[in-house]
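step: validate -> pass
step: tokenize input -> pass
step: predict -> running
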Amino acid sequence: MFLNNYSQSEIVAKRHICDVTYRNTYDIMLKSHNRRNYRKSWLMNERIRELRKYLKLTQQEFADRLGIPRNNIAGYETGKRSPSEAAIALICKEFGVNPEWIKKGKGSVFMAGSSSAIEYLMQEYGLNRKEAILIERFAGMNPKGRKAVLEYVESVANEFQKEKKNSDHK
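step: predict -> pass
step: emit ->
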């Protein structure tokens, strides 16, 4: 008899009928269970890989930021390992990732108002750390302060335009 032709419950029910020892039946059930968990884990692993690549980090850089071995990251991404709750929490904390997104694929990738929004801007627009700090500080100002900064920047830009027009006419 071929065990592949039976469902998991049929294998358990027919384990005495088939020439399969209890140990082999247990192994088959375990493999079947792991296959289901593997599929669930695979989706999360794909999101971990997607996040790491989006952040333009190598597996080693990603692991260093989390303080865990690189082979753990490789295992998560290939589906050979499922990340523990502690590893998921580390990823979420370090990169400002929404736990619902990493676990279930629901919601936005990053938590609202997290420092990872600044990291996102750094990656997306190639900002250096000083430029990112400027944006972060500007965003943290009250509306009156932001308005004052914008008015100042506009006045400086106008002065540059006037200067350029004067130099073009000479």
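step: describe -> Confidence is low (pLDDT under 50) at residues 1-41.
step: cleanup -> pass
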